[in-house]
Amino acid sequence: MILTQTKLFCVTPHHDRSPLEFAPDADIVWVEADGVMNSNRRGKPVPFLVRDFPDWVIQEVAAARESLLADADPRTIKLLM
């Protein structure tokens, strides 16, 4: 993801390149410090994370999605990421 001002944009490759929407997180607050916007969640900085193997993550999530669409019990789906 890339942060611009107070918006996050996912740069993980996906099949149709359409914009990804994120669920709002009411626990995230934006705080300005020395002209820089920082995000905090429940009083702690939101970490910067990068997926080392995006193709593998996409494949795993696609399989989970297919299982859900085939009426699998969501509690039985395990993601290893």
Q: What's this entry about, in short?
A:
This protein is α+β, with helices and mostly antiparallel strands.
Keywords:
single chain; 81 residues; alpha+beta; 2 domains; two-stranded antiparallel sheet; 1 helix; 5 strands; 20% helix
Account of the 3D structure:
Helix content is 20%, strand content 25%. With 81 residues, the protein is α+β, with helices and mostly antiparallel strands. It is elongated and about 50 Å long. The two termini are 16 Å apart. The model has no long low-confidence stretch (mean pLDDT 81).
The total domain count is 2
Task: Tell me the Rg in angstroms.
Answer: 16 Å
Low-confidence stretches: none
Helix content: 10-25%
Strand order of the largest sheet: 3-4-5
Assign an overall shape: elongated
Terminal-residue CA separation: 16 Å
The ordered string of helix (H) and strand (E) elements is EEEEEH
Number of helices, where a helix is a run of at least 4 consecutive DSSP H or I residues: 1
List the helices and strands and how they pair.
Layout: E1 2-4, E2 7-9, E3 28-33, E4 36-41, E5 44-45, H1 54-69
Antiparallel strand pairs: 1-2, 3-4, 4-5
